[in-house]
Amino acid sequence: MSRVAVLQGGQSLERQVSLRSGARVIDALHRLGHDVVPVDAGQDLVVRLRDAAPDVAFIALHGRDGEDGTVQELLELIGIPYTGSGISACIQSFDKVLAKHRLVDAGIPTPDFFAFTEAAFKGLGAAQALPEIEQRLDFPIVIKPAGQGSALGIRFADNAGAVPAALLAAFSYDSKVLLERFVQGPDLAISVLDGVALPVVEAVPVGERYDFEARYNIGQTEFVCPAQLPDGVTERAQELAVRVWEVLGLRGMARIDVMLSEETGELFVLEANAIPGLTDTSLLPQAAEAAGIDYDALIQRLLDLAA
Question: What is the pLDDT of residue 220?
Fold first, then answer.
């Protein structure tokens, strides 16, 4: 039996998702017989961790402070082992722009993109370059904040008139935004556990597009696992996910989001998630279940990897 501090909640925009992940993890840890210390991450985090003196911290935090390397650095500083990826991998994967540049440098396919800070739009006249961006990316364009997860702040601009409002929405979440070529086709998620790709999950939204509401509201999306894909696509997607895992230096667990172009059959990596959700609608647990790893076994495996 281990004494496990479950870090959840926090102050990010993904607080509610994190609380759901944390609650499910806590239930599993109790069933596994561990001594569990729930910790809602706040200003007293370091003090609470020192008082609790856990053997390991299970990170169920999503968004800023949890996925961007911040809490990982604190845990290393005070000498507590933790689940998931290390500082560098979290920093790189949380910043979608940085991650995409790493992928491009490694020859991994990702949709064409441009990225700008709010300061560039206000102080350098980047808005005047929008016609060139629109011409090179073509419509529709996906506009998203560089540093948010769970599909927060994502907008689809179907024409030039929709771009300013989409940018405004993205900037409300982050000071840097990503404008990305839209890839029409199945939305695939490949979870990786300790360097091994799990069965592919396809997200099939009830509505037109897969956004935050579709991801976390039960009944808004059908998840197919294993995904029913053309011959060879599953293997290619899994190989691609493991390459991303290696390039970004991920460890423990991760989820790689990929689009399959229905026009060309090519696979394009959208992003990597260093701390994927562990809720009842999350994709990592579904993929693990399809691989014969039930939820409790998954949580124990992540603890073992941390130790």
Answer: 65
Catalytic residues: 14, 150, 216, 255, 257, 271, 273, 277
Structure tokens at 114: 């441009």
CA separation for the pair 303, 290 (Å, rounded)? 20
- CB-CB neighbours of 185 under 10 Å: 17
Say which residues have a Cβ less than 8 Å from residue 3's Cβ, sequence separation at least 6: 34, 35, 37, 52, 53, 54, 55, 56
Give every CB contact of residue 44 below 8 A, 6+ residues apart in sequence.
none
pLDDT digit string, tens, across residues 120-139:
877 777 777 788 878 788 88
- pLDDT tens-place string over residues 228-272: 999 999 999 999 999 999 999 999 999 999 999 999 999 999 999
Angle between the 295-306 and 15-31 helix axes, to the nearest 10 degrees? Answer: 90
Q: What is the pLDDT of residue 151?
A: 67
Domains and CATH numbers, the chain: 3-83 (3.40.50.20), 92-109+184-306 (3.30.470.20), 113-181 (3.30.1490.20)
Q: Alpha-carbon Rg of the chain, whole angstroms? A: 19
Separation of first and last alpha carbons in the chain: 13
Bridge pairing between strands 56-59 and 3-8? parallel
Amino acid at 34: H
Can you tell me the distance from the alpha carbon of 133 to that of 126, in angstroms, rounded to the nearest whole number? 10
Distance (Å, whole) CA 15 – CA 152? 12
What is this structure's pTM?
0.88
